[in-house]
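Progress narrative, work stream C.
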Amino acid sequence: MAGPDYVFQGRSVTLPCIVREAASGAATYLVDASAARRLLPGPELDVVELLPGRALLSLACIDYRDNDLGDYDEISIALFVRERSAPRGVPVVGAALDFLRGRLATFILRLPVNQSFTCEAGCGIWGFPKRVNQIEITHGARMLCTWHADGQRVFTFSLPRGGRAKLPERELVTYSYLDGALHRTRFVSGAEGVGFRLGGAELDLGTHPIAQELRGLGLPKRALLSVSMEKMHGRFEAPEPVSRSSVARAGLATLLSHLFAVAIVLGGLASLAHAGGPARAERKDGSEVFRMRPDLRACEPPACGGFFVSQVNRDLSRCADGDRAPECYVASLEPSGKGVPDTEMLQDLASAPALWRALLRGRLEARRIPGAGTLGVLRVTQAWRPVGEGAGDGSFFSVHDTDIRCVKAPCPSIRAVLLNEGTELLVSEIDLERAKASAAELVQASDALDREGILVIGAPAPGSEPGVDLLLASRLYLQARVGQGH
C-alpha cells in the first residue's frame, strides 16, 4: 500500500522509497564508547557497549544506481544505539542477547550525498543528516571512496571488491530526529555478490573537523570486518514518531549505510569478553600443534580407546617413544595450564565427527601406566575449535594482527605463521569466504586477531591488484576455553 506523497524541487516522492540497485563497500570498527556517546545529539538514545567501553561504528560508501531518489553517491557513518528507557539487561551479555532478539537499532551520525534532490528528500522525509558534499567513488579491484567537505578532505576509504555470498532480505530499523522529535524508520534490505574479509579496509583521515571527530573515536584502526556488496536492493518506509514511553524494537543489523545490513554482527560477541590474557598460537616452548582422531580399535584400554595424533604440516610426527610415524597413539589428553578446557571437553572436541575435531597444542610425553607399560599422553596447553563448514584445503597457519597501520593500500598488517615450521609471511587480507563461517564467527575471528590470533587452513595467493598478498582460508579455528560450548 502506497504511503504519503512528498514534493521536492517539483518532483513527487511516494513511500515506500524503492532502491532497485546499489553497490557498497563498508567496514565496522570497535570504538571508544564514551567518545561515541558524546556524538549523539539527544538524550533519548545511548550507544550499546558490545564489550565494556567499546561501541560499534560502521562506515560505508554507497553508489546508488537505480533509486527513487536518483542516481547518486553517499557516505554513511552510524552507531549501534538503544533507547535509554529500554531495559539494559546484563552488561555485555545483555547486549549480545539483544542482538539475537532483534532489539538493537542504529543512529546515523553523518550521511553526505553528492546531489541536492536526495539531500532535500532525505532531510525532509526522514530527518536524515544529509548534506551535499563532494564524493568520488571509483570501482576497480578495490572500491575507492574520497570525501571532501568545505574545501577540505575528510577521508579516503578503500576496500577489496568481489564476493559470491547472498544476504537475504531483512527488516531493519534506524533512528533519526525529524522536526526535533525522535523517529524510527523501518526498511528492508538484501544483497548479492557479497564478500567478507578480515582486514582489507584502509582509512586515511584528512584535515576536516569531521576527520578529527573520527580520530577522537580512535580511528584509523584495523576494521573488524570489511564487506563488499556488488548488488543491493531495498525499500524505506515512512518515519514513525517514537513515544517517550515506548521500548525500541529494531531489526538485527548494523546500519553501515542506508542499505548495509550487517549480518556479520549477529550475536556471539559476548564470548569475546573473556578472562585471561592473549596466548599466541605460535610458541617457542617446544610444544606442537596436533590434529587427532579417536581410536576405535576394540581392545582393552588404555592400550586402545585413546587417540591417534599427528603434527600438522608434517608427514611424520615424533611419538612419545622417540619413533617417527604418520600418527602417534596417546592413551589420554590431559589439560595443562590455566584456561585450558577440561579433560571431558578435550575428549569431546577430539571425538567429534571429522569436520568438527579440534586442533590441540601440547607436548607428547611417555608415561608408565600400571598393567599397560609405557604409553604416550598429550599434555594440552591450548585447544582450537573449528567453525564453519569449509573443506580445509592447504596448510595450517597461525594468524594475528601486527599493529602495523598504513596511510594507503596495500598494507601488510597481518602475520601468518606456518604451524610447527615457523615460516612467516605478511599479508594484507584474509579471505574467509571458503571457510563458510557464520556472521557471528567472523566477528569473533576478527576480534581475536588483535589478541590470541586465529588458526586457519589455507594458502597464500596474489591479491586482486599488484602488491596485495592475501591468505585464502578454507577452514577457520577459534580458541576454545573453559566454559565454552563445544
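Work stream C, second folded protein:
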Amino acid sequence: MHTHIAGGTAGEIRMMEKEERTMVFIDLRNVTGVLKHYNAKGKVAFSHMTNLVNEERRLMAAYVFDGETNKKSKELHRTLKYEGFKILKGSYNVASNKQKEVDSLMVCEMVAHAFRDNYDTAIIISGDRDFCPAVKLIQSLGKKVEVAGFSVAMSGALCRECDVYHDLDTEELFFDVAPDYNVVYTGIPTEIGIWAGVDSTYVAGV
C-alpha cells in the first residue's frame, strides 16, 4: 500500500501514532463500485481493508454506510455486523436506482464524533469529493483526516484535502473464494476480524 503523508516523514508521523485513536468510515457503494467498474464478481475483504489502513493504532469503531435495503443487501449488512462493523443506513430510491441521504449521514457521524472528541484521526474509505467540506471542518477541530481508496473511484480534490492518503490499488482486497464464515472473531470492535469477505452478488447493481 502506498501512503502519502502531508507535512512530515512517515517515520515522524508513526512515532506520534502509538496511542492514536481512530475511527473508520466506509462508503460502501464507493468501494463496491470498483468491482462494478471492472465488471467483476468477487468478494471484498472489508475487515482486512480496515486493519490495513488502521495499522496498529487504537480503533474505536468502524462504520459502514449504505442505502440499499433489498434482501441481498440485508445479508451483506448482517455479515458486516457480525464482523464488528456498525451499519448505518440511509434510504434508496427505486425509481432513480440511487441511494439517498447516505453521504449526509456519513458526514454527520464523522463531524459529531469529532466534536465529542471520540477520535484523533478519521479514516475515510471513499473517493467521493462531496466529503471535502467535512474534511475541512474536522481538521478545523484539530483532528487528522486520512483517506483510503482506489484510483478509479478517487477524487483528486479529496486526496488534496486529507492529511494522509492510502492508495489501495496494489492491495489484494478482492477475492474469488468465499470467506470462512465458521470462524468466530473476537475483540470487536478494537480488533476487526481478519475477514469480512463479501460476495459482490450481495450488492445490488454490482
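The radius of gyration is 16 Å. No further action is required on this item.
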